[in-house]
Amino acid sequence: MAMTDILSAKDIEAALTSCKAADSFNYKSFFSKVGLKGKSTDQVKKIFGILDQDKSGFIEEDELQLFLQNFSSTARALTAAETKAFMAAGDTDGDGKIGVDEFQALVKA
Predict the structure, then answer these.
(1) Per-residue pLDDT averaged across 36-54, rounded?
(2) Which residues participate in Ca(2+) 1 binding (predicted)?
(3) Strand blocks (E) in 1-109
(4) What's the pLDDT tens digit per position in 19-33?
(5) Which own/partner pairs from 78-82 qualify as long-range (CB within 8 Å, at least 24 positions apart)?
(6) What domains can you pick out in the chain, each with its CATH number?
(7) Sign of CA dihedral 63, 89, 3, 70
(8) What is the distance between the terminal CA atoms of the chain, rounded to a whole angstrom?
(9) Which residues contribute to the annotated binding site for Ca(2+)?
(10) Is the pTM of this model over 0.90?
(11) pLDDT exceeds cutoff 90 at 100
(12) What are the Cα distances from residue 27, in Å, to 33, 34, 56, 76?
């Protein structure tokens, strides 16, 4: 499954363009621009499955740093500060990773 099976290529491009500069990534803005906020629970779970590169059932910090590259191979990696802020926002149980339910809550926030 590809991101474009769920999200439009045009929306992905617009969302990535909005956070091209280092330290400009804002997950709420990105989720809105990429069209993820309006997707069903099942569709968000499918996106989570793509982001969970090692299929552990969680998005760990190393996967989160490469978050944008899941949308386009030419996208930049998140900075350390962006990655930490993203993790802090999503990791509500404090285990150092984001589970599917935490990801759902983050997208709908």
Answers:
(1) 96
(2) 52, 54, 56, 58, 63
(3) 58-60, 97-99
(4) 999 999 999 999 999
(5) 78/25, 79/22, 79/23, 79/25, 81/23, 82/23, 82/25
(6) 7-108 (1.10.238.10)
(7) negative
(8) 25
(9) 52, 54, 56, 58, 63, 91, 93, 95, 97, 102
(10) yes
(11) yes
(12) 10, 10, 22, 15
Q: 55 CB contacts (<8 Å, ≥6 apart)?
A: 49
**Annotated binding-site residue numbers:** 52, 54, 56, 58, 63, 91, 93, 95, 97, 102
Q: How confident is the model at residue 60 (pLDDT cuts 50, 70, 90)?
A: very high
Evaluate whether 86 touches 75 at the Cβ level (below 8 Å): no
